[in-house]
Amino acid sequence: MLHHISLGVSDIDRAAAFYDAALAPLGYVRVWEDLSPDADDQAVGYGVAGGGDKLALKQRSIGQRPPGPGFHLAFAAPDRQAVAAFHAAALAHGGTDNGGPGLRAHYGPTYFAAFVIDPDGHPIEAVFNQAV
To answer: How far apart are CA 114 and CA 8, in angstroms?
Structure first.
């Protein structure tokens, strides 16, 4: 259903460093960039190597704010180890813990996830939802 989603960020360099690190354990990479120092329309895109973007980050230095309560963005992880590595990398690169790696039985018996807040305040999650 979704082609891609874009998030506004206040500092594209900081956001790109965060997402480069946090998404790598999940198998996602920067697939394009349009970086021009001091330009407010700079952007980067993430997806699987060789594919198009599913997540775009766009610098909006004025008026950028995360969506309100109820919003979060969940990334599919290939396994539980990747969920844990996502969480560790996100925290090491400026993210805030919002729920460490673990089973979330209230979402389902195999729902293994970790939650963080990115440096711009966007709530994100990595999830592996398969029996091991």
So the answer is: 22
- Cα angle, residue 64 at apex, residues 62 and 69 outer, rounded to 5°: 155
Instruction: Please name the amino acid found at residue 59.
Output: Q
Model confidence, pTM: 0.95
Q: How far apart are CA 128 and CA 132, in angstroms?
A: 10
Asked whether the beta carbons of 82 and 130 are under 8 A apart, the reply is no
Q: How far apart are CA 18 and CA 24, in angstroms?
A: 10
Measure the CA–CA gap between 122 and 104, rounded to whole angstroms.
21
Which tens digit of pLDDT belongs to each residue from 100-132?
999 999 999 999 999 999 999 999 999 999 998
99 φ/ψ sector (left φ>0, alpha ψ -120 to 50, else beta): left
